[in-house]
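Exercise 3.2. Students should predict the tertiary structure of the chain below and write it as structure tokens, then compare their answer with the key that follows.

Predict this chain's 3D structure.
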Amino acid sequence: MEKSVKSNAITLGIILGVILSLVTVIGYTVYQGMYSNWWFGILLFIMTVTFGIVSSVKSRKLLGGFIEFKTAFTSYLLTVALGTIIATIVSILIYVVIDPEAAESINQRIIETSVGFMEKFGAPEAEIEKAVAKMEETNQFGFISQIKSWFWSILFYIIIGLLASLAVKKKEPLY
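Answer key:
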């Protein structure tokens, strides 16, 4: 992969990481309730995928309008992986090192929101209690949980990236 393509992917990955980190810091300092909103995760997912696709498209432009699948995918993955790992490190610093009590508070809000959804959809009380017990066992903001979450999200982003790279790739004509 050319230096300019790598540089493009790294730059966009750092920008994505800064934006996701700012969202984490804002969530921590201003409105911790945003972590319990279902749309919040979807919004971050869409933003992350968009950055990855933009990285691939910009790389194609840098290469004169043509890009191989491998290069498009590498550009996408480098951007997404770098951006999300930066945000994960910031989240670990905030919720594991600096203020673990905030993580407990957010986990409690998430449990309350989940119970509300389950009640709204008519889940039996026994199932709700079982789900609450399982959620209380797990600290979603713990170090291991965040690392696991990052790996699972990267796997999902890889699948999306493979599809996006198929759409972005453009072979140079043979003649």
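Discussion points: The chain has six helices and no strands. The chain has a mean pLDDT of 88.
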